[in-house]
Amino acid sequence: MSLSVLIVDDEENARQFLGELLATKSYNVIGVGTLGEAREHLMKGDADIVLLDIQLPDGYGPNLLYETSSMPGRPPIIMITGFGDIETAVDAMKNGAHDFLTKPVDFAQLEKSLQRAGEVVIMRRELDHYREAMSQKVDFVVGDSPRVKTVIAHALKAADAQVSVLITGETGTGKDILAQYIHASGPRAGKPFIAINCAAIQNTMLESELFGYEAGAFTSAERRKPGLMEVADGGILFLDEISSMSLDIQAKLLRAIEDQSFRRVGGTNLIKVDVQILAASNRDLPRMIRENQFREDLYYRLNIVDLNLPPLRERKEDIPELVGFFLRATNMRQGKNVTEVTPLAMEAMQRYDWPGNIRELSNAIERAVIFCDGKSVDLPDLPRDVTMHL
Ligand SMILES: Nc1ncnc2c1ncn2[C@@H]1O[C@H](COP(=O)(O)OP(=O)(O)OP(=O)(O)O)[C@@H](O)[C@H]1O
Ligand SMILES: [Mg+2]
Is residue 375 within 8 Å of 338, Cβ to Cβ? Predict the structure, then answer.
Protein backbone atom coordinates (compact mmCIF):
# COMPACT_ATOMS: atom_id res chain seq x y z
CA MET A 1 0.00 0.00 0.00
CA SER A 2 1.41 3.37 -0.87
CA LEU A 3 0.89 6.29 1.48
CA SER A 4 0.44 9.89 0.44
CA VAL A 5 2.53 12.63 2.03
CA LEU A 6 1.36 16.22 1.99
CA ILE A 7 4.35 18.60 1.97
CA VAL A 8 3.43 22.08 3.18
CA ASP A 9 6.31 24.43 2.43
CA ASP A 10 6.36 27.79 0.69
CA GLU A 11 9.76 27.18 -0.84
CA GLU A 12 9.24 25.62 -4.20
CA ASN A 13 12.76 24.18 -4.29
CA ALA A 14 12.46 22.52 -0.92
CA ARG A 15 9.13 20.98 -1.94
CA GLN A 16 10.51 19.67 -5.15
CA PHE A 17 13.64 18.26 -3.59
CA LEU A 18 11.76 16.44 -0.82
CA GLY A 19 9.04 15.40 -3.21
CA GLU A 20 11.46 13.73 -5.58
CA LEU A 21 13.24 11.93 -2.79
CA LEU A 22 10.01 10.66 -1.29
CA ALA A 23 8.72 9.55 -4.67
CA THR A 24 11.74 7.26 -4.98
CA LYS A 25 10.61 5.67 -1.70
CA SER A 26 7.23 5.08 -3.34
CA TYR A 27 5.28 7.67 -1.39
CA ASN A 28 2.63 9.62 -3.27
CA VAL A 29 3.55 13.24 -2.83
CA ILE A 30 1.28 16.27 -2.77
CA GLY A 31 3.08 19.59 -2.47
CA VAL A 32 1.41 22.87 -1.42
CA GLY A 33 2.76 26.29 -0.47
CA THR A 34 0.08 27.64 1.87
CA LEU A 35 -1.89 26.70 4.96
CA GLY A 36 -5.11 27.29 3.07
CA GLU A 37 -4.29 24.62 0.52
CA ALA A 38 -3.11 22.29 3.27
CA ARG A 39 -6.49 22.68 5.00
CA GLU A 40 -8.29 21.80 1.80
CA HIS A 41 -6.37 18.57 1.42
CA LEU A 42 -6.94 17.65 5.05
CA MET A 43 -10.67 18.23 4.66
CA LYS A 44 -10.75 16.03 1.59
CA GLY A 45 -8.84 13.41 3.52
CA ASP A 46 -6.36 12.72 0.79
CA ALA A 47 -3.20 13.04 2.90
CA ASP A 48 -2.01 10.17 5.07
CA ILE A 49 0.93 12.05 6.58
CA VAL A 50 1.72 15.79 6.69
CA LEU A 51 5.12 17.46 6.58
CA LEU A 52 4.58 20.97 7.87
CA ASP A 53 6.82 24.02 7.73
CA ILE A 54 6.56 26.70 10.46
CA GLN A 55 6.39 29.99 8.58
CA LEU A 56 3.93 30.05 5.74
CA PRO A 57 2.75 33.04 3.70
CA ASP A 58 -0.79 32.85 5.08
CA GLY A 59 -0.09 31.97 8.66
CA TYR A 60 1.78 30.13 11.34
CA GLY A 61 2.18 26.41 10.55
CA PRO A 62 1.50 25.01 14.03
CA ASN A 63 -1.96 26.61 13.91
CA LEU A 64 -2.92 23.66 11.76
CA LEU A 65 -2.23 21.43 14.77
CA TYR A 66 -4.70 23.30 16.97
CA GLU A 67 -7.30 23.55 14.24
CA THR A 68 -7.28 19.85 13.55
CA SER A 69 -6.84 18.62 17.10
CA SER A 70 -10.35 17.17 17.28
CA MET A 71 -10.55 15.97 13.70
CA PRO A 72 -11.25 12.24 13.68
CA GLY A 73 -8.46 10.29 12.03
CA ARG A 74 -6.21 13.33 11.68
CA PRO A 75 -3.09 12.27 9.81
CA PRO A 76 0.19 12.32 11.73
CA ILE A 77 1.84 15.74 11.34
CA ILE A 78 5.63 16.05 11.23
CA MET A 79 6.87 19.60 11.90
CA ILE A 80 9.92 21.00 10.20
CA THR A 81 11.39 23.60 12.54
CA GLY A 82 14.31 25.97 12.17
CA PHE A 83 17.58 24.78 13.66
CA GLY A 84 17.67 25.44 17.39
CA ASP A 85 14.03 26.47 17.64
CA ILE A 86 13.44 24.13 20.56
CA GLU A 87 10.53 26.09 21.94
CA THR A 88 8.42 25.76 18.83
CA ALA A 89 9.28 22.08 18.60
CA VAL A 90 8.28 21.37 22.20
CA ASP A 91 5.08 23.32 21.75
CA ALA A 92 4.26 21.41 18.59
CA MET A 93 4.79 18.07 20.30
CA LYS A 94 2.53 19.13 23.15
CA ASN A 95 -0.14 19.92 20.63
CA GLY A 96 -0.08 16.52 19.08
CA ALA A 97 2.58 16.74 16.39
CA HIS A 98 3.81 13.29 15.51
CA ASP A 99 7.46 14.33 15.36
CA PHE A 100 9.68 17.29 14.53
CA LEU A 101 12.72 17.58 12.33
CA THR A 102 15.13 20.48 12.12
CA LYS A 103 16.27 22.22 8.99
CA PRO A 104 18.18 21.31 6.95
CA VAL A 105 16.29 18.07 6.91
CA ASP A 106 18.39 14.95 7.26
CA PHE A 107 16.93 12.49 4.83
CA ALA A 108 17.65 9.39 6.87
CA GLN A 109 15.86 10.93 9.85
CA LEU A 110 12.95 11.99 7.70
CA GLU A 111 12.62 8.51 6.34
CA LYS A 112 12.54 6.99 9.82
CA SER A 113 9.99 9.51 10.99
CA LEU A 114 7.78 8.84 7.96
CA GLN A 115 8.05 5.14 8.53
CA ARG A 116 6.82 5.45 12.12
CA ALA A 117 4.00 7.74 11.00
CA GLY A 118 3.13 5.23 8.30
CA GLU A 119 2.86 2.49 10.89
CA VAL A 120 0.40 4.60 12.86
CA VAL A 121 -1.69 5.21 9.73
CA ILE A 122 -1.77 1.54 8.81
CA MET A 123 -2.62 0.50 12.33
CA ARG A 124 -5.50 2.97 12.40
CA ARG A 125 -6.81 1.63 9.12
CA GLU A 126 -6.71 -1.90 10.43
CA LEU A 127 -8.52 -0.81 13.53
CA ASP A 128 -11.22 0.93 11.49
CA HIS A 129 -11.59 -2.14 9.36
CA TYR A 130 -11.89 -4.31 12.43
CA ARG A 131 -14.44 -1.98 14.03
CA GLU A 132 -16.50 -2.06 10.88
CA ALA A 133 -16.39 -5.84 10.76
CA MET A 134 -17.43 -5.93 14.43
CA SER A 135 -20.31 -3.57 13.91
CA GLN A 136 -21.59 -5.80 11.14
CA LYS A 137 -21.82 -8.72 13.49
CA VAL A 138 -25.44 -9.77 13.81
CA ASP A 139 -26.60 -11.51 16.96
CA PHE A 140 -29.05 -14.13 15.91
CA VAL A 141 -29.88 -16.37 18.86
CA VAL A 142 -30.36 -19.94 17.70
CA GLY A 143 -31.17 -21.81 20.88
CA ASP A 144 -32.02 -25.50 21.16
CA SER A 145 -34.92 -25.94 18.80
CA PRO A 146 -34.02 -28.24 15.91
CA ARG A 147 -36.20 -26.26 13.52
CA VAL A 148 -34.29 -23.03 13.97
CA LYS A 149 -30.99 -24.90 13.81
CA THR A 150 -32.04 -26.21 10.40
CA VAL A 151 -33.11 -22.74 9.29
CA ILE A 152 -29.68 -21.37 10.19
CA ALA A 153 -27.86 -24.22 8.46
CA HIS A 154 -29.85 -23.54 5.29
CA ALA A 155 -29.35 -19.79 5.66
CA LEU A 156 -25.58 -20.25 5.75
CA LYS A 157 -25.68 -22.41 2.62
CA ALA A 158 -27.79 -19.82 0.80
CA ALA A 159 -25.42 -17.05 1.92
CA ASP A 160 -22.47 -18.98 0.56
CA ALA A 161 -24.17 -19.82 -2.72
CA GLN A 162 -25.47 -16.23 -3.07
CA VAL A 163 -28.89 -17.39 -4.24
CA SER A 164 -32.35 -15.89 -3.73
CA VAL A 165 -33.99 -16.58 -0.42
CA LEU A 166 -37.58 -16.26 0.70
CA ILE A 167 -37.97 -15.79 4.44
CA THR A 168 -41.41 -16.41 5.86
CA GLY A 169 -42.81 -16.28 9.35
CA GLU A 170 -45.30 -14.46 11.53
CA THR A 171 -44.64 -10.93 12.66
CA GLY A 172 -41.74 -10.63 15.10
CA THR A 173 -40.20 -14.03 14.37
CA GLY A 174 -36.93 -12.50 13.21
CA LYS A 175 -37.20 -12.21 9.41
CA ASP A 176 -35.35 -8.89 9.31
CA ILE A 177 -32.56 -10.01 11.55
CA LEU A 178 -32.20 -13.27 9.63
CA ALA A 179 -31.76 -11.31 6.40
CA GLN A 180 -29.02 -9.26 8.08
CA TYR A 181 -27.45 -12.43 9.36
CA ILE A 182 -27.33 -13.90 5.85
CA HIS A 183 -25.65 -10.73 4.63
CA ALA A 184 -23.10 -10.74 7.45
CA SER A 185 -22.30 -14.44 6.99
CA GLY A 186 -21.71 -14.65 3.27
CA PRO A 187 -19.18 -13.41 0.75
CA ARG A 188 -21.22 -10.21 0.27
CA ALA A 189 -20.65 -9.09 3.88
CA GLY A 190 -18.54 -6.07 2.98
CA LYS A 191 -20.91 -5.08 0.18
CA PRO A 192 -24.16 -3.09 0.39
CA PHE A 193 -27.20 -4.43 2.21
CA ILE A 194 -30.15 -2.43 0.99
CA ALA A 195 -33.52 -3.04 2.62
CA ILE A 196 -36.81 -1.79 1.29
CA ASN A 197 -40.16 -2.30 2.92
CA CYS A 198 -42.57 -2.77 0.04
CA ALA A 199 -45.57 -2.20 2.30
CA ALA A 200 -44.32 1.22 3.35
CA ILE A 201 -44.06 2.58 -0.18
CA GLN A 202 -46.90 3.22 -2.56
CA ASN A 203 -46.77 0.94 -5.55
CA THR A 204 -46.61 3.92 -7.89
CA MET A 205 -43.35 4.95 -6.18
CA LEU A 206 -41.98 1.48 -5.75
CA GLU A 207 -40.97 1.06 -9.37
CA SER A 208 -38.84 4.21 -9.41
CA GLU A 209 -37.43 3.35 -5.99
CA LEU A 210 -36.30 -0.04 -7.26
CA PHE A 211 -35.13 0.84 -10.72
CA GLY A 212 -34.45 4.57 -10.49
CA TYR A 213 -35.42 7.09 -13.11
CA GLU A 214 -33.99 9.36 -15.77
CA ALA A 215 -34.36 13.12 -15.66
CA GLY A 216 -37.72 14.05 -17.16
CA ALA A 217 -39.21 10.58 -16.67
CA PHE A 218 -42.09 12.29 -14.86
CA THR A 219 -42.91 15.82 -13.75
CA SER A 220 -40.99 15.82 -10.50
CA ALA A 221 -37.99 13.97 -11.92
CA GLU A 222 -35.55 16.83 -12.33
CA ARG A 223 -32.44 14.79 -12.02
CA ARG A 224 -31.55 11.18 -12.75
CA LYS A 225 -31.79 9.00 -9.69
CA PRO A 226 -30.29 5.53 -9.36
CA GLY A 227 -32.62 2.84 -8.06
CA LEU A 228 -31.99 0.57 -5.10
CA MET A 229 -31.14 -2.25 -7.50
CA GLU A 230 -28.16 -0.20 -8.62
CA VAL A 231 -27.24 0.90 -5.12
CA ALA A 232 -27.23 -2.74 -4.05
CA ASP A 233 -24.97 -3.79 -6.93
CA GLY A 234 -22.50 -6.41 -5.73
CA GLY A 235 -24.45 -6.82 -2.52
CA ILE A 236 -27.90 -7.75 -1.33
CA LEU A 237 -31.34 -6.26 -1.86
CA PHE A 238 -33.79 -7.18 0.89
CA LEU A 239 -37.41 -6.86 -0.19
CA ASP A 240 -39.41 -6.84 3.01
CA GLU A 241 -43.17 -7.51 2.90
CA ILE A 242 -42.94 -8.54 -0.71
CA SER A 243 -46.62 -9.54 -0.69
CA SER A 244 -47.51 -5.85 -0.90
CA MET A 245 -45.95 -5.48 -4.32
CA SER A 246 -48.44 -5.00 -7.14
CA LEU A 247 -48.61 -7.58 -9.92
CA ASP A 248 -47.10 -5.35 -12.59
CA ILE A 249 -44.07 -4.49 -10.45
CA GLN A 250 -43.76 -8.16 -9.60
CA ALA A 251 -43.45 -8.82 -13.33
CA LYS A 252 -40.75 -6.18 -13.72
CA LEU A 253 -38.89 -7.45 -10.70
CA LEU A 254 -38.94 -10.98 -12.03
CA ARG A 255 -37.44 -9.86 -15.31
CA ALA A 256 -34.77 -7.80 -13.53
CA ILE A 257 -33.81 -10.74 -11.32
CA GLU A 258 -33.68 -13.21 -14.18
CA ASP A 259 -31.68 -10.97 -16.50
CA GLN A 260 -29.71 -9.25 -13.72
CA SER A 261 -30.41 -6.09 -15.66
CA PHE A 262 -33.15 -3.49 -16.02
CA ARG A 263 -33.93 -0.05 -17.37
CA ARG A 264 -34.50 3.06 -15.29
CA VAL A 265 -37.97 4.54 -15.49
CA GLY A 266 -37.94 6.70 -18.61
CA GLY A 267 -34.60 5.25 -19.69
CA THR A 268 -33.52 3.11 -22.61
CA ASN A 269 -30.10 1.91 -21.45
CA LEU A 270 -29.95 -1.55 -20.03
CA ILE A 271 -28.21 -1.46 -16.65
CA LYS A 272 -26.35 -4.58 -15.60
CA VAL A 273 -26.16 -5.47 -11.94
CA ASP A 274 -25.14 -8.33 -9.72
CA VAL A 275 -27.62 -8.42 -6.87
CA GLN A 276 -28.63 -11.20 -4.51
CA ILE A 277 -32.28 -10.97 -3.59
CA LEU A 278 -33.68 -11.76 -0.17
CA ALA A 279 -37.42 -11.38 0.28
CA ALA A 280 -39.61 -11.65 3.35
CA SER A 281 -43.31 -12.09 3.87
CA ASN A 282 -45.61 -12.74 6.79
CA ARG A 283 -48.50 -13.58 4.50
CA ASP A 284 -49.41 -16.88 2.93
CA LEU A 285 -47.95 -16.50 -0.55
CA PRO A 286 -49.18 -19.83 -2.01
CA ARG A 287 -52.65 -18.75 -1.07
CA MET A 288 -52.12 -15.36 -2.68
CA ILE A 289 -51.00 -17.19 -5.81
CA ARG A 290 -54.26 -19.15 -5.83
CA GLU A 291 -56.13 -15.89 -5.49
CA ASN A 292 -54.13 -14.34 -8.34
CA GLN A 293 -52.53 -11.73 -6.14
CA PHE A 294 -49.00 -13.01 -6.36
CA ARG A 295 -47.13 -14.26 -9.42
CA GLU A 296 -46.28 -17.91 -9.26
CA ASP A 297 -43.18 -17.51 -11.44
CA LEU A 298 -41.77 -14.81 -9.12
CA TYR A 299 -42.55 -16.99 -6.12
CA TYR A 300 -40.47 -19.84 -7.51
CA ARG A 301 -37.70 -17.45 -8.51
CA LEU A 302 -37.45 -16.05 -4.97
CA ASN A 303 -38.00 -19.33 -3.28
CA ILE A 304 -34.75 -21.01 -4.37
CA VAL A 305 -34.14 -21.40 -0.68
CA ASP A 306 -37.09 -21.00 1.64
CA LEU A 307 -36.54 -20.28 5.27
CA ASN A 308 -39.53 -20.49 7.53
CA LEU A 309 -39.11 -19.03 11.00
CA PRO A 310 -41.41 -20.82 13.43
CA PRO A 311 -43.54 -18.77 15.81
CA LEU A 312 -42.14 -18.57 19.32
CA ARG A 313 -44.95 -20.75 20.70
CA GLU A 314 -43.57 -23.60 18.59
CA ARG A 315 -40.00 -23.13 19.82
CA LYS A 316 -40.52 -22.59 23.51
CA GLU A 317 -37.33 -24.48 24.34
CA ASP A 318 -35.47 -21.41 23.03
CA ILE A 319 -37.11 -19.05 25.51
CA PRO A 320 -34.44 -19.32 28.26
CA GLU A 321 -31.62 -18.55 25.86
CA LEU A 322 -33.50 -15.68 24.25
CA VAL A 323 -34.35 -14.30 27.69
CA GLY A 324 -30.68 -14.47 28.69
CA PHE A 325 -29.70 -12.68 25.51
CA PHE A 326 -32.24 -9.88 25.96
CA LEU A 327 -31.34 -9.52 29.66
CA ARG A 328 -27.69 -8.96 28.78
CA ALA A 329 -28.58 -6.53 26.01
CA THR A 330 -30.98 -4.53 28.19
CA ASN A 331 -28.58 -4.45 31.15
CA MET A 332 -25.96 -2.98 28.85
CA ARG A 333 -28.32 -0.35 27.53
CA GLN A 334 -29.85 0.55 30.87
CA GLY A 335 -26.73 0.18 32.99
CA LYS A 336 -28.46 -2.40 35.20
CA ASN A 337 -27.49 -5.79 36.50
CA VAL A 338 -30.55 -8.01 36.37
CA THR A 339 -29.12 -11.42 35.66
CA GLU A 340 -31.71 -13.95 36.83
CA VAL A 341 -35.31 -14.95 36.39
CA THR A 342 -37.32 -16.54 39.19
CA PRO A 343 -38.72 -20.02 38.41
CA LEU A 344 -42.26 -18.66 38.55
CA ALA A 345 -41.52 -15.85 36.10
CA MET A 346 -39.84 -18.33 33.76
CA GLU A 347 -42.84 -20.64 33.97
CA ALA A 348 -45.18 -17.79 33.06
CA MET A 349 -43.06 -17.02 30.02
CA GLN A 350 -43.02 -20.69 29.03
CA ARG A 351 -46.79 -20.95 29.24
CA TYR A 352 -47.61 -17.79 27.37
CA ASP A 353 -48.19 -17.98 23.61
CA TRP A 354 -46.39 -14.80 22.49
CA PRO A 355 -48.54 -13.66 19.55
CA GLY A 356 -45.99 -10.91 18.89
CA ASN A 357 -43.25 -13.57 18.96
CA ILE A 358 -39.64 -12.59 19.66
CA ARG A 359 -40.36 -8.88 19.39
CA GLU A 360 -42.92 -9.21 22.17
CA LEU A 361 -40.51 -11.24 24.29
CA SER A 362 -37.75 -8.71 23.79
CA ASN A 363 -40.06 -5.87 24.84
CA ALA A 364 -41.28 -7.82 27.87
CA ILE A 365 -37.71 -8.33 29.07
CA GLU A 366 -36.82 -4.71 28.52
CA ARG A 367 -39.79 -3.65 30.60
CA ALA A 368 -39.00 -6.23 33.29
CA VAL A 369 -35.42 -4.98 33.64
CA ILE A 370 -36.66 -1.42 34.00
CA PHE A 371 -39.18 -2.43 36.70
CA CYS A 372 -36.94 -4.87 38.52
CA ASP A 373 -35.26 -3.53 41.65
CA GLY A 374 -33.17 -6.57 42.52
CA LYS A 375 -31.12 -9.06 40.59
CA SER A 376 -33.95 -11.34 39.42
CA VAL A 377 -36.93 -10.78 37.18
CA ASP A 378 -40.02 -11.80 39.13
CA LEU A 379 -43.65 -12.27 38.21
CA PRO A 380 -44.78 -8.69 38.95
CA ASP A 381 -42.08 -7.32 36.61
CA LEU A 382 -43.66 -9.04 33.60
CA PRO A 383 -46.52 -7.59 31.53
CA ARG A 384 -50.00 -8.67 32.63
CA ASP A 385 -50.66 -10.50 29.37
CA VAL A 386 -47.81 -12.83 30.15
CA THR A 387 -48.70 -13.64 33.74
CA MET A 388 -52.47 -13.74 33.34
CA HIS A 389 -52.68 -17.44 32.47
CA LEU A 390 -50.45 -18.73 35.21
N1 LIG B 1 -33.15 -15.13 16.79
C2 LIG B 1 -33.11 -13.91 17.30
N3 LIG B 1 -32.09 -13.55 18.10
C4 LIG B 1 -32.07 -12.31 18.64
N5 LIG B 1 -32.98 -11.39 18.44
C6 LIG B 1 -34.02 -11.67 17.66
C7 LIG B 1 -34.14 -12.96 17.04
N8 LIG B 1 -35.27 -12.98 16.31
C9 LIG B 1 -35.82 -11.77 16.46
N10 LIG B 1 -35.09 -10.98 17.27
C11 LIG B 1 -35.42 -9.60 17.66
O12 LIG B 1 -36.83 -9.48 17.69
C13 LIG B 1 -37.26 -8.27 17.09
C14 LIG B 1 -38.16 -8.56 15.90
O15 LIG B 1 -37.42 -9.21 14.87
P16 LIG B 1 -37.58 -8.83 13.33
O17 LIG B 1 -37.77 -7.38 13.17
O18 LIG B 1 -36.45 -9.46 12.62
O19 LIG B 1 -38.95 -9.59 13.03
P20 LIG B 1 -39.77 -9.70 11.67
O21 LIG B 1 -40.05 -11.14 11.46
O22 LIG B 1 -39.05 -8.97 10.60
O23 LIG B 1 -41.12 -8.96 12.05
P24 LIG B 1 -42.19 -8.22 11.09
O25 LIG B 1 -42.89 -9.28 10.30
O26 LIG B 1 -43.11 -7.54 12.04
O27 LIG B 1 -41.40 -7.29 10.23
C28 LIG B 1 -36.01 -7.53 16.70
O29 LIG B 1 -35.70 -6.64 17.72
C30 LIG B 1 -34.96 -8.61 16.60
O31 LIG B 1 -33.69 -8.10 16.88
MG1 LIG C 1 -39.62 -7.29 9.50
Answer: yes
